[in-house]
Amino acid sequence: MLFNSYIFWVFFPLFLALYLVVQPWLIARNILILVASYVFYCWWDYRFGALLLFTSLTDFTFAQLIEKAPRANRRKAFLTASLSVNLGVLGFFKYFGFFSESVQAFINQVFQVHIEWHLLHIILPVGVSFYTFQSMSYVIDVYRGKLPAVRNPIQFFAFVSFFPQLVAGPIERAPHMLPQFSRTLRITAESLEHGIWLVIWGMFQKVVLADNLSPLTDLVYDHAVPSLPILILGTTAFALQIYCDFAGYSDIARGLAKILGFELMINFNLPYLARNLSDFWQRWHMSLSTWIRDYLYIPLGGNRLGESRTRANLLIAMVLAGLWHGAASNFILWGAWHGLGLVIYRTWNRFRPANKNMPVVLAWFLTMLFVGVGWVFFRCRSMEQIADFAGGLGCFTLPLWWLTYVKSLLLLAAPLGFMHVWQAHHRQAESFMAFNRPARALLEGIMCLAIVTWWNPLGASFIYFQF
Q1: Is the per-residue pLDDT at 307 higher than 80?
Q2: How confident is the model at residue 182 (pLDDT cuts 50, 70, 90)?
Q3: Which of 118, 325, 425, 426 is catalytic?
Q4: Is 420 designated active site?
Q5: What single-letter DSSP state applies at residue 123?
Q6: Bond preceding residue 175 cis, omega within 30 of 0
């Protein structure tokens, strides 16, 4: 069930009406959330619900075992078992085909033989990476003693399956989210206003901006090898598209949660205003970047074991971040590119002369240039396409339609640019609430009109659903 589909906007009001009735009764509220979340998720395929239930039950059980284990080695064994099950499920559904094809190609090339085995056509469950990481982090936090194991299965299952953020995040943490399922939440006028704004703004980003930027991106990336100027335009379109698509989803998720009285973490904080690559990753997909920092980079040693080990840890963390996005060599290259960039930035920052800062505009431009090259790797369908695009970098010809392309791109970028300028001026991502009520109501009305005008009745899928 897509947020931007008509069926969801039948589902959510019905759910909300029941929710407001049972909201004072904690158990009934959590049961309603759990049932609604499974209906929401199983709308794609009822089999997805079985996998979600299996993940939830596995981690609920192992967390109990970890907490009750009398010895450290037993606790570690249970943690290892939990992680093995989760990563095994994720690996089977997401990476089995990729690694099987890679092994087949390696054998054929190295041994000069031709083998061809029939691969299983495995359906990738929507959002499996998101809820698996969320559930895994809970077990790790219990192991680390950051929170007690949950005794109430309904509470835990509702936490893992909470439908606003189930399939594309934010990837929530148990210490922040689980307590909200253990107490009655107040729905205030302020939270309703905030939530409604986030939902409308998120829908506007997706339906009006991202979905109309998509054909501009496809025009460049799904056809002949473009010249350098056209590749720059197409990559700019994709950079805006993926931001509006993913940040739009996160805003809708946060808005729906606020309407229900829940608080989700902010997932994006003006990433295209970053002045260095480290700053970019503190602003982009923050729930994933902090997850990788806390559960991968720091356990690997972080920056505690010397400069060489720190650089290796950065590379490992970012390559795995790329692999998290998908079982494809271009995603691995994208992750390695960002890992290399973080290593270069760390090295430059360490040895630059004291009090010698790069001019702000130049620092921003170089950061966006680096991020833009990374988006080329991300958007290309294969390494062969990346190589083809690299071969066309020496061409500077412009097709007849380039001026129309630029006009369309500027028109779609303008609303996002306006909002970013407003947010940067107020120095916070949530500054839209600084609009007075009449101005906010006018903007909401304009955005709703635009959403209705451009709405695809079938609902165009969100980009990050494939991850």
Answers
A1: yes
A2: very high
A3: 325
A4: no
A5: -
A6: no
